[in-house]
Amino acid sequence: MSEKSYGQELCEKLFYTSKNAWEVLKEEEKPFVFDLAEKYKHFLNCAKTEREAVEYFVERAKEKGYIEFNNNIQKLKPGDKVYFVNNNKSILLAHIGKKPLREGFNLIGSHIDSPRLDLKPKPLYESNELALLKTHYYGGIKKYHWVNVPLSIHGVVVKSDGSKVKITIGEDENDPVFYITDLLVHLSSEQLQKKASEVIPAENLNVLIGSMPFNDEKVKEKVKLNILKILNDEYGITEEDFISADIEIVPAAKARDVGLDRSLIGAYGQDDRACSFLAAEGIFSIDEIPEKTAIVYLVDKEEIGSVGISSAEASFFDISVAKLLKALGEYESSLDLAVSFENSAAISGDVAAALDPTYEGAFDKLNSTLIGHGVTIEKYTGVRGKYSGSEATAEYVGKIRNFLNSNNICWQTGLLGKVDQGGGGTIAMFIARKMINVIDSGVPVLSMHSTFEITSKVDVYMTYKFYSEFLKRFD
Known about the structure:
This protein is of the alpha/beta class. 28% of the residues lie in helices and 23% in strands. The protein contains 12 helices and 22 strands. A 9-stranded mixed beta sheet has the order 1-2-3-13-4-14-20-16-18, sandwiched between helices. A 6-stranded antiparallel beta sheet has the order 8-7-10-5-6-9, with helices on one face. The radius of gyration is 24 Å and the shape is globular. It starts with 5 loop residues before the first helix and ends with a helix.
């Protein structure tokens, strides 16, 4: 074999290229990669809404010895594990470390909401002897993705007496599924001339829910009445109860392996339940008392700008950390909370847009992530001119790079497509507002915001490896 030239040696020394994680994966790590993927797929099937995700994480936390923090908890000590729940739609997990909380904590924040269809407050109507549900889409979707696919109904209804009814229909193989119709191709000449954003108007995203009439000639809307009777018999609800309900329409498809080599995962809601699941598993993997307190914060409403009581913009995080400080005997004034934030480090866990070979023109190939090349770090996010984004400092990026390399974690860097092509943000900006150093990092995804997104099992593993090591020992 010929010796390397001086130029080749310089290339190895000076050039930056990411590596295919499968090619550098240790043989003893492979069983864990596939085992983690199965756990992740199970989670995706169990948690298709933010409420279901919180329920899942609460159960996992209890299994791992966490207790819910309440006002009866007066004292905490290193090694204690607690969780806080915000309106059943966001959750904070904390594993108390050896160092005082005023000296900072290691935080991973992510979101558990995904693009979907929400029912309107008065959704049920009858037309041409069919019963349908009117919806309002949530988050950034391509509306034509949602027609002609099996759908399921998830959510809660709060009745006038305050009691709560949980509804999940369409996930069990014996359940009925639901459906949004499309115009048949034989009559679509006018429709097919429209722009993709106009092919399916938002008001056409009406969910077919039934067609059988109630047997009473004196009733006008027989099909609607029959559907309401079924709902009343099964769940004890009336039409008025929809006004105080959180009902979401999501794809009924299960998470599946993709590809003959089973290297990929296809599922709805991987943006951003991927990073949320991996952050939670990262904190649950901590067996010994960490040096610094580890915190995982999983929030709602990121897909619509992080607004509302269960979002990253809400004060729930600040209140929870203040309560931790007080229970640790470290809170005397609001300055203690500010100092704790200033000494902390964070990851904003959110998925990245993987380079799609079919649509290369939308990407800057030099600054795009690749499926199979490990966890992504993004120095900045935002839209056109970096608006509505967050940018990590060079010093913090350098520290993160060193940490990744020191822990033999396959990583890559990238951005969300070409400048002016579009863009997007994460919850990083809300973490940065607290004076916490933060960087965006997560799993690369193909077909993001579709009804069936694609990730690589090895990227899922490398992201888990980064998150767990970061929570345990980043300093």
